[in-house]
Design brief:
Catalytic activity: a 2'-deoxycytidine in DNA + S-adenosyl-L-methionine = a 5-methyl-2'-deoxycytidine in DNA + S-adenosyl-L-homocysteine + H(+)
Largest sheet: 6 strands, mixed
Strand order of the largest sheet: 2-1-3-4-6-5
Number of helices: 9
Strand content: 5-15%
Radius of gyration: 21 Å
Family: Belongs to the class I-like SAM-binding methyltransferase superfamily. C5-methyltransferase family.
CATH superfamily of the domain at 9-184 and 325-347: Vaccinia Virus protein VP39
Bound molecules: S-adenosylmethionine
InterPro entries: C5-Methyltransferase, C5_DNA_meth_AS, C5_MeTfrase, C5_meth_CS, SAM-dependent_MTases_sf
CATH topology of the domain at 9-184 and 325-347: Rossmann fold
CATH architecture of the domain at 9-184 and 325-347: 3-Layer(aba) Sandwich
CATH class of the domain at 9-184 and 325-347: Alpha Beta
EC number: 2.1.1.37
Order of helices and strands: EHEHEHEHEEHHHHH
Oligomer: single chain
Shape: globular
Helix content: 25-40%
Pfam families: DNA_methylase
Structural class: alpha/beta
Distance between the termini: 29 Å
Length: about 350
C-alpha cells in the first residue's frame, strides 16, 4: 500500500471487507496494515483496498505489525449482539478486545477507534463491572501511555447514511496529546429516504439479488410498501409465523418482514440479510435488495465491487456488507479525528 506523504498511518484490525477502512482512506489516512481471517472479506478487501493479512489476530505477534498513528478495531459484534446469545465476555470472542489492548500497548498509536453494537453498553465484564467502564479504564491506565477515551451511541443516519443503524464508537486520544475527542455535529436527514438511493444506472456492477425462498415470496405478495408481516393474512403465513401470530404478547410483537417505503429511512442491514431480521425487501418489487442496493444503504461507493467471477458465493457478499461500518459514517468520524488529533497537532 503506497500512500500520501504525512498521511496518518493506520493499522486496521477486524477490517472485514473494508467499510470503515474505505471511510478513513477517503479522509486521508494511509492504511499500512489490515487484518481479517474471513476469506470472503479478504477477497473483497483486496479487490478494493489492497493487501490484508488473513491470519487469526490471536496468532499475530505485535512485532509483525508496523508502527502506526491510529489503530481501528471493529471487534466482532456477535457476542454482544442483542440478536445473538448474549454470552458477552464469557464467550471467548468477547475477549478479542483484549487482543486490541495487547497491540495498542506495544504500538502506542496516537489515536484508537473501537466500533461495536449497542448491546455492548449493557454487557457486564466477568467481574460484574460494565464492559464499557472496563474498556475505558483499561485504556486510561495503560502503562507508560494511557488514553482519554470518549464513547457515544450513534445512529449512522445522523452522519449521512440512509439507514437507522445504532453503533457504539469509542475514540481514544493518547494522553500526552492533551485532547479529548468531540463527536461531530449531527447532519441533516432530509435526503436519506430509500427513494433517493434506489435509482441505480444499469452499468453499475453487482446488481444481483439472492432469491427469496418460496415461503417468503408467498408472504411478501401481501405486504404493501411500508408494511410488514402483520399485513399478511393468517392463512398465508408460514407455519412458524402462525405460531408467533397466535401469541404475539409472548413473542413481544416482533416486526418481521419490514418493507420500508421509499419515503422512509431504511432499517439496519444485517449480515444474515433475512427478511425476519432486517428490512431487506425492496419497497415496490417482490424481491430482496440486490448486493448493490444493500451496498448503497451502507454508503459504499458504486465503484466498490463485491462479487466477481472468483467469488460465486452471493450470500457471503450480503454477510460482509451487513457486517461493515457504513463508509460515510466512518468518513465523518475520520475527518473529525483528522481535524482534532492530527491537523491540530501539526499546528502546535
Ligand atoms: C463486524 S466485522 C468488521 C467490519 C469492518 N469493520 C468493516 O467496516 O467492514 C468483524 C470482523 O472480525 C473478523 N474476525 C473475527 N475474529 C477474528 C480473529 N480472531 N482474527 C481476525 N479477524 C477476526 C471477522 O471475520 C469479521 O470480518
Amino acid at each position: 500500500m503506497t500512500g500520501v506523504k504525512d498521511a496518518p498511518k493506520m493499522v486496521s484490525l477486524f477490517s472485514g471487507c473494508g467499510g470503515l477502512d474505505m471511510g478513513f482512506k477517503t479522509a486521508g489516512y494511509e492504511i499500512i496494515w489490515a487484518n481479517d481471517f474471513d476469506r470472503d472479506a479478504q477477497a473483497v478487501y483486496r479487490m478494493n483496498l489492497g493487501e490484508i493479512d488473513g491470519r487469526d489476530i490471536m496468532t499475530v505477534e505485535e512485532n509483525e505489525i508496523p508502527d502506526c498513528d491510529i489503530l481501528t478495531a471493529g471487534f466482532p459484534c456477535q457476542p454482544f449482539s442483542n440478536a445473538g446469545s448474549r454470552k458477552g465476555v464469557h464467550d471467548s470472542r468477547g475477549m478479542l478486545y483484549k487482543e486490541c489492548l495487547r497491540i495498542i500497548a506495544k504500538k502506542k498509536p496516537k489515536v484508537i477507534v473501537f466500533e461495536n453494537v449497542k448491546g455492548l453498553l449493557s454487557t457486564k465484564y466477568i467481574d460484574g463491572r460494565n464492559l464499557v467502564d472496563v474498556i475505558i479504564e483499561d485504556l486510561a491506565d495503560m502503562e507508560d501511555i494511557g488514553y482519554n477515551v470518549v464513547h457515544e451511541l450513534i445512529n449512522a443516519s445522523d452522519y449521512g447514511v440512509p439507514q437507522n443503524r445504532q453503533r457504539v464508537l469509542f475514540v481514544g486520544i493518547r494522553k500526552d496529546l492533551n485532547k479529548e475527542f468531540i463527536f461531530p455535529e449531527k447532519q441533516d436527514k432530509s435526503r436519506l429516504a430509500l427513494g433517493n438511493i434506489l435509482d441505480i444506472p444499469a452499468d453499475v456492477p453487482n446488481q444481483v439479488d439472492w432469491p427469496l425462498s418460496p415461503q417468503a415470496m408467498e408472504m411478501i405478495n401481501y405486504i404493501p410498501e411500508g408494511g410488514s408481516w402483520k399485513d399478511v393474512p393468517y392463512e398465508h403465513l408460514a407455519p412458524r409465523f402462525r405460531k408467533i401470530r397466535d401469541n404475539m404478547k409472548k413473542y413481544h410483537s416482533p416486526n418481521f418482514y419490514r418493507r420500508f417505503s421509499r419515503s422512509e429511512i431504511c432499517g439496519t442491514m444485517t449480515a444474515s440479510a433475512q427478511p425476519e431480521n432486517c428490512g431487506i425487501i425492496h419497497p415496490t418489487e417482490n424481491r430482496r435488495f440486490t448486493i448493490r442496493e444493500v451496498a448503497r444503504i451502507q454508503t459504499f461507493p458504486d465503484e466498490f465491487v463485491f462479487i466477481d467471477d472468483n467469488i460465486k458465493n452471493i450470500t457471503a457478499m450480503y454477510k460482509v456488507i451487513g457486517n461493515a461500518v457504513p463508509v460515510k459514517m466512518a468518513n465523518v468520524i475520520a475527518q473529525a479525528i483528522m481535524r482534532q488529533a492530527f491537523e491540530g497537532e501539526q499546528k502546535q
